[in-house]
Design a protein that fits this description.
- Its EC number is 1.8.5.-.
- Helix 1 runs parallel beside helix 3 and helix 1 runs antiparallel to helix 7.
- The protein folds into two domains: 146 residues, Glutaredoxin, CATH 3.40.30; 145 residues, Glutathione S-transferase Yfyf (Class Pi), Chain A, domain 2 (Up-down Bundle).
- The protein contains nine helices and six strands.
- A four-stranded mixed sheet has the order 4-3-5-6. The protein has a two-stranded parallel ribbon with strand order 1-2.
- It is an alpha/beta fold.
């Protein structure tokens, strides 16, 4: 069988099985802890503006979600931002973009230092996004699905005036079901294609991915966004995969039935979001390509980063709305 990119996350049948999220603390306004305190008995950290730091990578779709929400909700001043290098070494995500190679707020060179300060026995893969407490240096959460939902709900008192409701109460059941399908078949589906090490595992993931993209195209044919006429968390989650599709997933992960630019409805929808403040201005195609093509030696052993595709089309009129 072929060599796996992440052997600890590969099943016996050659399927990529993503590791669970280790840190699942939550920042909430109903925490029993006083300001400056740690998590209460229920794992709830106190809601405090300026205390927590979001560690993200411009290349990572899971982290990109949280970055988009900070801007859309006006939380940029409440939660500080740390950006890691798109290229990992053997110790993982690095703060080499900062002077001296250390994050100025956390004082660390590698995100793994915060992971080990929180759990000295941690041996899993270090992932972004990670919400880190600047007072203790501990990781509050790397639970990316819950983290973004909490930004919409638990941090509401610190939202900017007029911030969008990305997780409306009346739509949550439908949203949760839709986002679960998108996660399984699209967000994680591209990884299940790219990291598969058996033909059967790849075939299954590829078929599910494009069947879901076809269904989403049908859904979006007569409405601007996934839930109608307003952006929700589901759109954010789908966008971060679509914006990487032609630059990385089509070639690098063998998701090549069609390019995004060959799927008219999804291509127009993705451009619509890209041109919405808070979306396209957080995209870095250089970081995306350098990360994917430069850090997966089992898939791309030469490390050559492609010069294409042409990204100028993202600015073309989308004709939606």
């Amino acid at each position: 069988m072929a060599r796996a990119q992440f052997s600890a996350e590969t099943s016996g049948s050659g399927e990529f099985v993503r590791q669970p999220n280790r840190f699942t603390g939550r920042v909430t306004p109903d925490s029993d802890s006083p300001p400056g305190g740690g998590p209460d008995a229920h794992g709830r950290w106190p809601l405090e503006a300026g205390r927590y730091r979001l560690v993200w990578c411009r290349a990572c779709p899971w982290a990109h979600r949280a970055r988009i929400l900070l801007g859309l909700l006006g939380l940029d001043d409440a939660i500080s931002l740390a950006t890691v290098d798109p290229i990992r070494d053997e110790r993982g995500w690095r703060f080499t973009l900062d002077p001296g190679g250390r994050d100025p707020a956390l004082g660390i060179s590698y995100l793994s230092e915060a992971y080990l300060a929180t759990d000295p026995g941690y041996t899993g893969r270090v992932t972004v996004p990670a919400l880190v407490d600047t007072l203790t240096g501990r990781v509050v959460s790397n639970d990316y699905p819950q983290l973004t939902l909490d930004l919409s709900t638990q941090w509401r008192s610190l939202h900017r005036p007029g911030a969008p409701d990305l997780y409306p109460v009346g739509l949550r059941d439908e949203l949760d079901a839709l986002m679960a399908e998108i996660h399984r078949d699209v967000n994680n589906g591209v990884y299940r294609c790219g990291f598969a090490i058996s033909q059967a595992a790849y075939d299954e993931a590829f078929t599910a991915l494009f069947a879901r993209l076809d269904a989403l195209s049908d859904r979006l044919a007569d409405q601007r966004y996934l839930m109608g006429d307003a952006i929700t968390e589901a759109d954010v989650r789908l966008f971060t995969t679509l914006v990487r599709f032609d630059a990385a997933y089509h070639g690098h992960f063998k998701c090549n039935r069609h390019k995004l630019t060959e799927l008219p409805v999804l291509w127009a929808y993705a451009r619509d979001l890209f041109q919405t403040p808070g979306f396209g201005d957080t995209v870095d195609f250089d970081h995306i390509k350098r990360h994917y093509y430069g850090t997966h030696p089992a898939i791309n052993p030469t490390g050559i980063v492609p010069l294409g595709p042409d990204t100028s089309g993202w600015a073309a009129p989308h004709g939606r709305g």
